[in-house]
């Protein structure tokens, strides 16, 4: 972690980061000593204990051995099928680990001062006695990371918007492969005029899916029509608006790859408004494979993102960090899978391809 995050401020109580700096060890090593782990060398343990005594470090939120661990899950959109499936994985894993889950918004408003500043955000989590936090689809600023290090709060981000901060562990999926497999499926059906709806342009996941789309077209020597590639929101209204505009302007593709299931629902609605039959006139592939995909009309072909598993891995990871364990990898990617249903077929003006993935 950058050295500036270990700087002490005069008059402030010493932090775990201060202890780690004084003892010339990592913060997980200090945590292991505080938690009584045996896998710390005798000399290192003595050095850490000496630093604790010299600095007068007092652990925040110190609780008895029977105290319940609590993880705060923070997201700004909790009502989407995507978020609900991730939360299902988090809560299932929490039950197994005998931990409590608290749900809140990442961009949390303070009662009197507006949005919580990054430092206040971290202190609120610490004063509440949280064991750690899971952030769903958000970007942690350097100020957030600094505050977390000062409070010694482990955090794991699911589907982070930004992977440039190596100090924050994250969990995601193989988005490039997902975008590529969706496009290869459409190419295999005979489609050549394929559109791509990305998610928010600042989203690493959305960008990777569109890169996979482009790679599949390049591999098949099919040119990309840049008028049919657009980044927008992951929501229903955004999917509807872009598809409706394409259809109105005469830029009608024979297939659309959408960056989420909810976005794909908007595409299906726009197709109905313009009298287009899916899949006869337009094939549609979604992303996530939430319950919306199986319930839509027609059932939606979608890239299955292992959302439940991502939630479980995030919960297990934050508990491991809280116990002083070093993560094997700072970014974990779980495999995606294409699930073929009734929203895709060969284009009306092309013969079917020799083979396509088996329907599920």
TrEMBL record:
Family annotation (SMART domains): HTH_LACI
Ranges annotated as biased composition (Low complexity) = 343-360
Q: Where is this region: Disordered?
A: 340-360
Q: Which residues form a coiled coil?
A: none
Domain HTH lacI-type, first and last residues per copy? 14-68
Q: What Pfam families does the record tag this protein with?
A: LacI, Peripla_BP_3
Q: Which residues cross the membrane?
A: none
Instruction: List the molecular function annotations (GO) for this entry.
Output: DNA binding
Query: What InterPro entries does the annotation carry?
Result: HTH_LacI, LacI/GalR-like_sensor, Lambda_DNA-bd_dom_sf, Peripla_BP_I
What UniProt keywords apply to this chain's record, in alphabetical order? Answer: DNA-binding, Transcription, Transcription regulation
Q: What is this protein called?
A: LacI family DNA-binding transcriptional regulator
Q: What is the lineage of its organism?
A: Bacteria, Bacillati, Actinomycetota, Actinomycetes, Micrococcales
């Amino acid at each position: 972690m950058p050295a500036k995050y270990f700087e002490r401020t005069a008059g402030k109580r010493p932090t775990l980061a201060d202890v780690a700096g004084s003892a010339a060890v990592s913060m997980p090593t200090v945590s292991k000593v505080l938690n009584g782990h045996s896998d710390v060398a005798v000399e290192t343990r003595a050095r850490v204990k000496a630093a604790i005594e010299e600095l007068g470090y007092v652990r925040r939120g110190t609780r008895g051995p029977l105290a319940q661990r609590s993880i705060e899950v923070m997201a700004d959109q909790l009502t989407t099928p995507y978020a609900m499936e991730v939360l299902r994985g988090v809560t299932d894993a929490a039950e197994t680990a005998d931990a409590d889950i608290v749900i809140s918004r990442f961009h949390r408003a303070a009662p009197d001062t507006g949005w919580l500043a990054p430092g206040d955000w971290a202190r609120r989590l610490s004063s509440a006695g949280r064991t750690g936090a899971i952030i769903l689809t958000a970007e942690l600023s350097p100020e957030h990371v600094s505050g977390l290090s000062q409070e010694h709060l482990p955090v794991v981000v699911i589907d982070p918007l930004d992977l440039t901060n190596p100090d924050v562990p994250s969990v995601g999926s193989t988005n490039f492969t997902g975008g590529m497999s969706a496009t290869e499926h459409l190419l295999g059906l005979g489609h050549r005029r394929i559109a791509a709806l990305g998610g928010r342009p600042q989203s690493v996941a959305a960008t990777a899916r569109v890169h996979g789309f482009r790679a599949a077209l390049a591999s098949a020597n099919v040119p990309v029509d840049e008028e049919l590639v657009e980044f927008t929101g992951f929501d229903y209204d955004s999917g509807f608006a872009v598809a409706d505009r394409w259809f109105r302007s005469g830029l009608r593709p024979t297939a659309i790859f959408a960056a989420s299931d909810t976005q794909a629902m908007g595409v299906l609605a726009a197709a109905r408004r313009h009298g287009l039959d899916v899949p006869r006139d337009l094939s549609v592939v979604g992303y996530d494979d939430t319950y919306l995909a199986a319930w839509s009309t027609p059932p939606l072909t979608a890239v299955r993102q292992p959302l439940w598993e991502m939630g479980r891995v995030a919960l297990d990871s934050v508990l491991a960090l809280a116990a002083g364990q070093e993560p094997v990898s700072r970014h974990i990617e779980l495999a995606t899978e294409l699930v073929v249903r009734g929203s895709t077929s060969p284009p009306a003006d092309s013969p079917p391809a020799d083979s396509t993935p088996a329907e599920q």
